[in-house]
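note to self — DONT lose this again. spent like an hour looking for the file last time. sequence + predicted structure for the chain T wanted, 158 res
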Amino acid sequence: MLAVVGVCSALVQAGLTGVIVKKIGERKAMYLGLFSGMLAFIGYGLAPTWYWFVATIPLGALWGLATPNIQALMSSKVGPQEQGTLQGANMSLSAMSTVFAPILFGVILSAVTKSGVPMWLSGAAFWMAALFMVFSLILAGGVKQSLTVETPSDGAPH
């Protein structure tokens, strides 16, 4: 199964991302990635069998469209002297999610795998991930397409 994830992710990152961005732009590619991730997590949580779970992996791989486009859009909003600060903030948020996500999803998984809990709840951790994707889509709604650093009338980048 990990091989399927790896192959699908490699195809998206190495080939599809550039093609899709050229066709629909960074902003729409970001939305497509986030929406695909949301649908994949819902699919993982609802998958009745291993085969259905694996069949959802290509959809999940399209989530790989989100991050490079989010970073490109954010980078276009700040000047060269602020790129390090932006990337540092991004890495800090990524590090925090690396610490807290396993705790949150571990607690959820522990709660839904106890005896007496209905089997249909076993996908709850994936559904929580889908909910986080919904929050990401809402936050992404404030992103404007911009290929150049935006500068106010005083000439300073913002």
